[in-house]
Specification:
9 helices
């Protein structure tokens, strides 16, 4: 279903719940995997996704359609991921670039998140070594096949900076593979 139809149905009180169900059907799985790649743990991802769609329900009426609906959803999802990771970082009082990325990597390896082959596991572990912003950019470009312009709308960063960030992420991943052969 077209996003404009979902938005129009949401604006009408009598079809609001139907519109929201349509929105969930169209975007919930994509948003879940976007979140899951950032927070790793399934239960955490479920909690974050629930928070995201509560925000969407409360704010969809205010959506001005000056961007695409899915980039608006990804922006909310990305902000919720960053908020969640920052809270987790504060609770653990360590940097995500250090011990908690090792923790996430261990969580990944225990099999609850991951059931692919060793190369895929190594790729996921390499991605976890990236700073949050590079990880977001890499995930959106590599896994979700988003265009730089779309990522720019979501993250509010210039296309040039995103290309540089993606390039750096790829280099770091290549270096991780070289160091762990």
């Amino acid at each position: 279903m077209e996003d404009s139809l979902i938005i129009a149905k949401f604006a009408d009180e009598s079809t609001r719940e139907e519109a929201f169900r349509l929105l969930l059907k169209k975007y919930q799985q994509k948003i879940y995997w976007h979140v899951r790649r950032m927070v790793i743990d399934h239960d955490d991802a479920d909690d974050v996704v629930q928070d995201i769609f509560i925000k969407v329900w409360r704010n969809l009426e205010k959506f001005r359609e000056d961007s695409q609906l899915y980039t608006w959803l990804y922006r909310i999802a990305t902000n919720e991921c960053i908020t969640f990771l920052n809270k987790k970082k504060q609770k653990q009082s360590v940097s995500l670039d250090d011990e908690s990325s090792a923790y996430l990597s261990d969580s990944l390896a225990d099999g609850s998140y991951f059931n692919g082959d060793k190369a895929q596991l190594k790729l996921q572990q390499a991605i976890l070594t990236l700073p949050d912003k590079q990880r977001l950019v890499f995930n959106m470009k590599y896994f979700e096949d988003m265009k730089y312009e779309e990522i720019s709308e979501v993250l509010g960063t210039s296309v040039g900076a995103l290309k540089a960030s993606y390039h750096l992420a790829v280099k770091k991943i290549e270096n991780f593979f070289a160091a762990h052969d």
